[in-house]
Write a sequence for this structure.
């Protein structure tokens, strides 16, 4: 097997929400595979810190602080990429938030915020990215981060569930329209991963026991365990894979 198949040298990857958690692990992983990575979050200070950490590891990394859920902020960021000559070959729509509340207590503004950040943002950033990929005529890779909730619901996270279900089909909608331009759009569905976003769940003994007993691997996943699937979907190795979702969940969805 040739490792050239998975080599990302000479490619530029934008990873949204990548100053910590899964996004940061993917920034590290795609960098190690050779890509130049653009780190993003809403906060400039968080971006600067993540960029500094990755630079210390010897990676070619840039930062771009912008709000993925705000159309003006997204288009300003892409104008800046154009001016800097940054051409995105790989987009990872990873930015996401959580709001846990039973639906009977859920406010419209919180529903909307979660849908905007976890689903609409992937459309907005995906559109700006794909528009340029189509114009350049060199194809590209889009990876949308889903969830176990792309497949099944869990009580108290309705907007997150609906957004992540949408992500799975957004990848397919992108594939339907952009495959002819040699753009591959796929999803990764992480299982329960040890991240800041999930810390409250990790710290809840009942939830922790539920994760360990429901998952045949009997443990939480680590952010870096998503890197392999991301490199595959970002590289030439997946050039005829389109509209799929790869669950990296320790086998969770395969068992009763
Ligand atoms: C939750 C978690 C999610 C899960 C994810 C598993 O509250 O359900 O915060 O992020 O970790 O849905 O795929």
């Amino acid at each position: 097997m040739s490792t050239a198949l998975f080599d990302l040298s000479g490619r530029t990857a934008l990873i949204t929400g990548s100053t910590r958690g899964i996004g940061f692990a993917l920034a590290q992983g795609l960098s190690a595979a050779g890509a130049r990575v653009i780190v993003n979050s809403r906060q400039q200070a968080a971006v600067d810190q993540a960029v500094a950490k990755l630079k210390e590891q010897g990676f070619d990394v840039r930062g771009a602080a912008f709000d993925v859920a705000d159309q003006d902020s997204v288009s300003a960021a892409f104008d800046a990429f154009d001016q800097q000559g940054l051409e995105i070959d790989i987009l990872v729509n990873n930015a996401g938030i959580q709001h846990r509340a039973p639906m009977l207590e859920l406010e419209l503004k919180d529903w909307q915020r979660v849908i905007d950040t976890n689903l609409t943002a992937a459309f907005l950033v995906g559109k700006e990215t794909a528009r340029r990929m189509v114009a350049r005529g060199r194809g590209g890779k889009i990876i949308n981060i889903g969830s176990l909730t792309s497949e099944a619901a869990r009580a108290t996270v309705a907007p997150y569930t609906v957004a992540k279900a949408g992500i799975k089909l957004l990848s397919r909608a992108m594939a339907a329209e952009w495959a002819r331009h040699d753009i591959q759009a796929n999803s990764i569905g992480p299982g329960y991963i040890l991240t800041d976003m999930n810390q409250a769940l990790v710290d809840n003994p009942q939830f922790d026991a539920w994760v360990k007993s429901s998952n045949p691997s009997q443990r939480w996943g680590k952010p870096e365990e998503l890197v392999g699937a991301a490199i595959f979907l970002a590289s030439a190795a997946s050039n005829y894979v389109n509209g799929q979702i790869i669950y990296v969940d320790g086998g969770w969805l395969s068992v009763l």
